[in-house]
Amino acid sequence: MAIPEGLLSYLWVAATAVLVPTVFGLGLVRGLGLAAHEGHRVHIAFAWLVGQFATAALTAGWLASGKPIPGPMLVGVTLVIGLFGLFAFRNRGADAAAVTALVSRNRLDWLVGAATAVVVAVLVLECLAANADPIRLGDEADIWAAKAKAFYAAPGLDLQLGLSMVQAADYPNLSPLLQVFAFAGSGRVLHFESRLPVQCFGIALLLLLSAACQRRAHPLLAMAAVVACSATLGTANVTRLYADTALAFATLATVEALLRWREGGGAVWWRLACCGAAAMLATKNEGAMLLLVVFAATAGWCWFARAAEQPRVRAADVAWLGLPMATYALHQVFLQAFALRNAMLDASTAGGRGMFTRIVDQASTHAGPVLAWFGKMAIDPVPHRLLPLLFVVAVTAALATGGRRSLREPSALLFAIVFGGIGGYMLVFVGAQEPLDWRLPTAAARTVQHLVPLAALGVAMTIWPRRSTPTAA
Question: How many CB atoms neighbour CB 111 within 10 A?
């Protein structure tokens, strides 16, 4: 069965590649223990994260086993699993002893939801406009869509041959697999509709950022942070098949889950943090570096800000660390199976010099231009609306007024992650093989965008923190 092109195809892909994975994710997060009182925005955002990651895993298994069932049946199986989870775990909530207390609403909370609705509507319109243009140019065609087509065409087309025609075929496979799921549901390769599941990561990001800001900052500043961050998403090509918005969303979801876990939200947040970590690794190669920064900063901050009652990871939940570990290991197996190399890390592609060797060798010539470029970018309002710079100013003021005590606030953790990640990216540019006058303009702003949502959240909760937890968002 193949759905014909046109409006019917668009609606069909929206149903099969957007709605079905969302239902799938809702069933899964309910099974993980996400309580109803956490609110619609949180549920939809984490359902999207978990549902699309699990959908990609199912799709990979479907491809690896030789497509044993028709594509529409794969979509049907996914929907049935999601509905079963919703029904089977409809009364399940977070651990009774770990439910976060709820307090009265702020009378301005509605502003955050209203602002979120507006920016999501604007994003939807931008995506619809972008989809008038078929996938035919740039990285979205040469990397992400090309890889999806190679996967879907196998075994009719030898996958080794197909991947040889894909630029940067070593990139992680979440985006291509989500496109394959859209192909499978429609019974044919798609030429613009397959952007839909990738574009929706921008919507999920705004929903989760909105909920996180409303939980931790005054509604007026929370609203401003969401609007400002929404204006930066174009830097990551949110309306195209680029995976940068997906990585920014997965990073935000991982950090937000870790914060809620430490606040006493229960084991469900630890599980969701592990799901987010796996999704970070599955989106882009940069996810591995960011994940190291996130967990190193979180471990250090938890030790420094040790509270009377630190959350504990139960023995049964340690196994959830296996999810990101397995994600990384399986991708390495994929790379070995098809002899694919990461050009940035493989020493054989740079005259025998690995990344760390290049950083040391090129520091004298590259460090200055990289530092100057990032400095100019920090004071340019266009790519990131000055959010990283405002975060520096806010944290500096907090240190001046609060002293050492301010380092125990969650905003200190966000600061360590944001600027640890930016510092890591700067080192990568110092060790770049390509000329900096090409690499910096094409990638610097886009990579910093991975951390801008965290900077927006950090600015809001540092300048005007909310000392009590609001009702569901």
Answer: 17
Interatomic CA distance for residues 189 and 136, integer angstroms:
13
What does pTM read for this prediction? Answer: 0.95
Q: Which residues contact 269 (CB under 8 A, 6 or more apart)?
A: 257, 258, 260, 261
> Six-digit token pair at 375?
């400095």
The C-alpha atoms of residue 135 and residue 169 are separated, in whole angstroms, by: 18
Distance CA 468, CA 7 (A): 47
- Between CA 411 and CA 460 the distance in angstroms is 9
- Which residues of the chain are modeled with pLDDT < 50? 94-104, 308
Q: 3-state DSSP call for residue 265?
A: coil
What's the confidence (pLDDT) of residue 136? 92
Other beta carbons within 10 Å of 288:
16
Calculate the alpha carbon distances from 373 to 233, 298, 369, 379, 444 in Å.
Answer: 20, 29, 6, 10, 8
Q: What angle do CA 339, 340, 345 make, to 5 degrees?
A: 125
Q: Which two tokens stand for residue 201?
A: 């990561």
Report phi then psi at 48, rounded to 5. Answer: -65, -45
What pLDDT, on the 0 to 100 scale, is given for residue 8? 82
Rg of the chain, C-alpha, whole Å: 22
What pLDDT score does 343 carry? 73
> Using alpha carbons only, what angle is made at residue 254 by residues 253 and 256, rounded to the nearest 5 degrees?
65
Q: Interhelix angle for 71-88 vs 40-64, to 10°?
A: 140
Beta pairing partners, 217: 465
What pLDDT does 307 receive? 58
Cβ pair 28, 46 in contact under 8 A: no
Coil, strand or helix: which one is 338? coil
- The rounded distance, in Å, linking the Cα atoms of 389 and 57 is 38
**pLDDT for 344:** 76
Cα dihedral across residues 318, 324, 330, 333: positive or negative:
negative
From CA 415, how far away is CA 397, in angstroms rounded?
13
469: left (phi over 0), alpha (psi -120 to 50) or beta: beta
Phi/psi at 155 (5° precision): -90, 5
DSSP string covering 159-205, please?
HHHHHHTSTTTTS-SHHHHHHHHHHHHHTS--SSGGGHHHHHHHHHH
| Burial (Cβ within 10 Å: 0-12, 13-18, ≥19) of residue 315 | exposed
Q: Is the dihedral of CA 159, 160, 166, 169 positive or negative?
A: positive
